[in-house]
Fold this sequence. Notes:
Blueprint: H1 7-13, E1 21-23, E2 26-27, H2 38-53, H3 55-58, E3 59-61, E4 68-70, H4 79-96, H5 103-123, H6 127-141, E5 145-148, E6 171-176, E7 179-190, E8 197-200, E9 215-220, E10 226-230, E11 256-267, E12 271-274, H7 280-293, H8 297-315, H9 322-347, E13 350-351, E14 357-358, H10 361-386, H11 396-400, H12 405-411, H13 420-434, H14 439-448, H15 453-463, H16 466-477, H17 484-493
Parallel strand pairs: 1-10, 5-8
Antiparallel strand pairs: 1-2, 3-4, 6-7, 7-11, 8-9, 9-12, 10-11, 13-14
Amino acid sequence: MEKISNKEEYLESISNRDLKIYLMGELVKDPLTHPIIKPSIEAMAETYELAVREPDLASVKSPYTGETINRFLHIAENSEDLYLQNKMQRKLGQLTGTCFQRCVGMDAFNALHSVTFEIDEEYKTQYHENFKSFLTEMHKYNLVIGGAMTDVKGDRSKLPHEQEDEDLYLRVVDRNEKGVYVKGAKAHQTGCINSHWMVVMPTLRLSEKDKDYAIVGAIPVDADGITYIYGRQSCDTRSMEPGEYDVGNKYFAGQEAMVIFDNVFIPNEYIFMNGEYDYASMLVERFTTYHRRSYVCKSGVGDVLIGAAATIAEYNGVEDASHIKDKLVEMNKLNETIYATGIASSLQGSETKSGNYINDDLLANVCKQHVTKETYEIGRIAQDLAGGLVGSMPSGIDFNEGEMSEDLKKYLKGKEDINAEDRVKILRLIENMTLGRNAVAYLTESMHGAGSPQAQRVQIRRKVNIEEKKDFAKKLSGVQERNEKSWKLLFVQS
């Protein structure tokens, strides 16, 4: 394989692979040409194109090979690196209007760099060296790495070893001197079919009886024993219909799939945890710290939706109304709040024992908490500005080709100087992002990606130093005597 440097080379690298993919009950022969899958591949390809157009933003020099690589493969060496990841994510959200599918892999890599180091430190294992060797290989060819963390979970009240069916969490089912075999499933895996490799990880804190579930390793996506069941998205079959009016987003879409592992082999050199159950919670927490601030990508997607809302207001002739302007201000306020908390988390990053940087975990959880709410409110306002037509428009076939085409062009027109076709396209984009296919990437994923809203609230409660805040209040109110020396020390520490 040659190193991938652009879109064309990426598309070539994922062609002619022997992947077992089921979509709507049928085995997919060629994902690259399938009308439902192709838009997600185009979104992934845009990550390579951005690196060509804006190398300072989306590429970086590898410390392992000395060559230029995509920033999605980079291990953050300082807060600036974390910040640039966020800037790149917002830009790609603006360019695609959907999920571009590479953040999970990037965040998994960064979490594993420090976790493998600390496992080795305690247990004298070789996971960190294994990981760096694998990372070097990925950098050499500039590949796409997916992260697979979410298990199907079964009965949520029970740990993995307590499940009636042992396979409801990915586990090791056999071992030999060369490696391990794993079995189970990973749910809603982002961009897995469009990746070259995936890294499997445990999804929750484990007990000693769950040692077989404490497995982390890298697997080629076309490895023997892997089956993909492609996830449905609202209105996805519109991509298979003639014309382009009804798809909303003409070029891009996200991708989720369930991955079934049936005795899939992982060689020793690609194993980064194997039975060290006591480090599973550290990996989950560090991964989610990275990944929750990665949701600044939704601010980029939000930019698209805000632009669509402003455009339809203009096309409807109401752009100068004060309440319309106020609603657009509210949308922008909410959107920038998401971005600001993610950026703040990155800029307050700190060094780990392994030498890479991790962003602030409290602010990362605040960022993701905003994402679970503000995206829905932005979407609601967009629908408000669009009007009822966004939910009841005739099909593109009727509009463009049917017997009623001319009538529709007459009656669906807005402002005098705006043609009906353009108005319909913007309305379809708003529908696509709030009700249709890319509502998965903007809304549903915002709710559940990187953990549920309650998971973030739990972490916020854990990370906030409430006793320190109580001390501030008690000293200023006179409840406690204010000692000047301790007062100054308190501020220095905080």
